[in-house]
């Protein structure tokens, strides 16, 4: 249960296309990535992770699994008569990890956060919703601070419904939509205004789609949510998906079922991403990708008979910008359940963690898949996937992974600067639709070509799904050569709040497929 923290150097060292790999120096093991152990143990399990805009990562697990391996500071204890495991608990179930110093400190959660969800508000505060038992109606907030004093603040009974295995998405107007959860066929909103006034609670809105997609194993938990450029939500549960207008509680469109009748959501946990939104080619096209999962009977087979079925090797890609899209299926080199899918700064997708047999759920996974796989969305169809080097440790149920500002992937369970561009200045605030410039350096001996400027929203990751993750490739107007190795790129802020809801994003300059050595935090508003 206790997590070691690992990093994989992934995005930093991948030549993007064959053309560029010839003009760039090649590195030993360039395709392998490299694993680095940060901490043999952080005392808790990194079941849920969120990167904040001060380069600290909030991690937490659950309170009802006995003591963790990290004491609360100053002899503090948690007294919780309704906890299922410990009424008095002097250990932590949450930490704040500092990327820069590779240190962490204990945080205090009072009520049970098991299998909950979250999103970051435009002001940079993490809002976490629900959990289990006495935590299932709780909203918690964590606001980043510059000293060592910030901690969780809990708002009991603030959720209208119990939210256990729900998914969240930040919306263009700064509210958060909270969808589903176990036996919850509905959604509700978090709004800061309502939160502050005790008199008005947001209501609940029925969503029959969640009832239609329930099967005996409840393979529709942690539904995949993606906010689309047209302002609607894409919701995927089990094998089905809809285009949903949350403002009017209306299903706009039902998409075809993903081929194969195998479920993709918890406990048959596959994963999903919204592929990068590119503002440079006229209309912004939105494509959804769903990878991995387990056969329909997988969970019951594991629970009832201790038999661990082979997992799915298929991915489906759906062009939701198309009037009548169909799933285009592809085969991963390795079958996997509980794989995390993350967008890397150069637009590639990494699929990492998980198992080759079984499903999600306690002790239901077998045959850990230690090798991450890279998917290159715009490569020729037979050259999209490749396999990276194996992790020293298996990462099964309750592992998570997030992208860090320096392009590395942190696995809950390394500095790199070869020829990566370096951003030397960028605005702290980026306005929707407005021009701004980014200056950066590229070593003199390289010809500058294929420059792009991208923003990535940090994800709330749990149970193989990274909520709120999105990348926008900004519209590039011009690149000018300033001095020997300094350039400036003029770009346009994301055109709408539907394409990029307000809030903090990591901005990267990508040169010939290689992202800048550090992503810079910008606030989109
Ligand atoms: C954490 O684990 C170590 C090694 O097993 C042990 O010595 C230590 O007492 C544990 N700490 C807590 C707070 O459980
Ligand atoms: C997605 O559909 C749109 C609208 O039909 C089309 O313009 C675009 O080329 C499609 N994208 C891909 C990758 O197929």
From TrEMBL:
Pfam families reported for this sequence: Glyoxal_oxid_N (PF07250), GO-like_E_set (PF09118)
Alphabetic keyword roster: Signal
Record domain Glyoxal oxidase N-terminal: where: 47-413
Signal peptide location: 1-21
InterPro entries named in the record: Gal_Oxase/kelch_b-propeller (IPR011043), Gal_Oxidase_central_sf (IPR037293), Glyoxal_oxidase_N (IPR009880), GO-like_E_set (IPR015202), Ig_E-set (IPR014756)
Domain Galactose oxidase-like Early set positions: 420-524
Protein name: Galactose oxidase-like Early set domain-containing protein
């Amino acid at each position: 249960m206790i997590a070691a923290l690992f990093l994989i150097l992934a995005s930093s060292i991948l030549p993007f296309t064959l053309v560029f790999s010839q003009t760039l120096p090649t590195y030993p093991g360039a395709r392998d990535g490299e694993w680095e152990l940060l901490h043999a143990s952080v005392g808790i399990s990194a079941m849920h992770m969120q990167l904040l805009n001060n380069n600290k990562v909030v991690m937490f697990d659950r309170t009802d699994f006995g003591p963790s391996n990290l004491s609360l500071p100053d002899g503090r204890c948690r007294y919780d008569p309704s906890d299922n495991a410990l009424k008095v608990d002097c250990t932590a179930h949450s930490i704040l990890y500092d990327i820069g110093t590779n240190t962490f400190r204990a945080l205090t959660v009072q009520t049970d956060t098991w299998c909950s969800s979250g999103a970051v508000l435009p002001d940079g505060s993490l809002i976490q919703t629900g959990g289990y038992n006495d935590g299932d109606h709780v909203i918690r907030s964590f606001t980043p601070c510059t000293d060592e004093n910030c901690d969780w603040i809990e708002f009991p009974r603030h959720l209208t419904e119990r939210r256990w295995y729900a998914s969240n998405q930040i919306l263009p107007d700064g509210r958060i939509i909270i969808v589903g959860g176990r036996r919850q066929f509905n959604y509700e909103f978090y709004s800061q205004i309502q939160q502050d006034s005790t008199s008005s609670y947001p209501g609940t809105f029925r969503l029959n789609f969640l009832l239609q997609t329930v099967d005996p194993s409840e393979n529709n938990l942690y539904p995949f949510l993606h906010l689309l450029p047209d302002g609607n939500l894409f919701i995927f549960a089990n094998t089905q998906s809809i285009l949903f207008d949350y403002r009017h509680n209306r299903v706009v469109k039902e998409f075809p079922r993903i081929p194969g009748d195998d479920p993709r959501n918890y406990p048959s946990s596959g994963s999903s991403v919204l592929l990068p939104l590119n503002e440079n080619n006229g209309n912004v096209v939105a494509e959804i990708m769903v990878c991995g999962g387990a056969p329909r009977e997988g969970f019951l087979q594991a629970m009832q008979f201790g038999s661990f079925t082979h997992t799915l090797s298929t991915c489906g890609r759906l062009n939701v910008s198309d009037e009548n899209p169909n799933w285009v299926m592809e085969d991963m080199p390795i079958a996997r359940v509980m794989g995390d899918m993350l967008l890397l700064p150069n637009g590639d997708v990494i699929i990492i963690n998980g198992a080759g047999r079984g499903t999600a759920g306690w002790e239901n996974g077998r045959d850990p898949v230690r090798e991450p796989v890279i998917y290159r969305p715009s490569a020729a169809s037979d050259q999209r996937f490749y396999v990276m080097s194996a992790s020293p440790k298996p990462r099964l149920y309750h592992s998570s992974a997030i992208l860090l500002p320096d392009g590395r992937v942190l696995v809950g369970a390394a500095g790199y600067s070869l020829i990566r561009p370096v951003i030397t200045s960028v605005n702290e605030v980026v306005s929707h639709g407005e021009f701004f410039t980014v200056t950066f350096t590229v070593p003199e001996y390289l010809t500058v070509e294929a420059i792009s400027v991208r923003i990535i929203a940090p994800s709330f990751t749990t149970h193989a799904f990274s909520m709120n993750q999105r990348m926008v490739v900004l519209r590039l107007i011009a690149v000018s050569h300033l001095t020997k190795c300094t350039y400036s790129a003029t770009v346009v802020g994301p055109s709408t709040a539907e394409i990029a809801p307000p809030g903090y994003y990591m901005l990267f300059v990508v040169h010939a497929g290689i992202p800048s050595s550090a992503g810079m935090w910008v606030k989109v508003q």
